[in-house]
Amino acid sequence: MTHDTKQAALWSPGAAWVPRPTDQAWPAELFDVHCTACPRLHAFHEQNRAKFPDHFNGPVPPFGPASAQLLIVGLAPGLHGANRSGRPFTGDFCGELLYSSLNKFGFANKAQSLAVGDGLQLLNARVSNAVKCVPPENKPTPAEIKTCNTFIASELRRHPPKAILALGLVAHQAVLKATGHKQSAFKFAHGAQHELGTLRLFDSYHVSRYNTQTGRLTTPMFEAVLQTIADYLPA
Length: 235
What we know:
The chain is of the alpha/beta class. The chain contains eight helices and five strands. It has helices at 3-8, 39-51, 82-85, 94-104, 142-158, 169-178, 209-213, 219-232; strands at 70-74, 125-129, 163-167, 193-196, 199-204. Strand 4 (193-196) and strand 5 form a beta hairpin. Helix 5 packs across helix 6. Residues 1-9 have low confidence and may be disordered.
């Protein structure tokens, strides 16, 4: 029996899936760890539960205090990042720039996010995703983004922030849809700011490995956006 076969034997499609511990519990309208609304994403989870039984392999909840004035919205969990750890931007390269910068500007008590239970706390900030489930090839479909938008919309209604940082175009569009604003009225651009009623939307390129390695997003560029947000929020 190969190593992969041994791993697959630990879980089989149709068996009851029990999620690993997460940092926080959220009401069902904000997050549902057992959501199966998107057939393709649910099937992908089932494949990964058999292939990677040590991964979280489920919809990934938001991380950070409900009362936070800053909400950071990403795209979706990475296969061996948040989908492994159960915490957004944790376990792969994407979280390195994000959490170190949040720590630098006083939004986190540590510069690294390693795993659930590592003692990391976000301070006046919360991290969420436009799509809660890991998509194949890191590419959710428009229908999946639309379906999952109900969760981010509920999160914004129940726990409205003063500022939102959208990491990438998909997150930017998800926020606009969740808040009932026209996409055409607010163009995405790195460093852009948009007034959305009682909150302000800030845009940044995504903190992906591709963007940082190609120089599309540098550390100073990302830190400049966070500095602007820190200056905007009341002390």
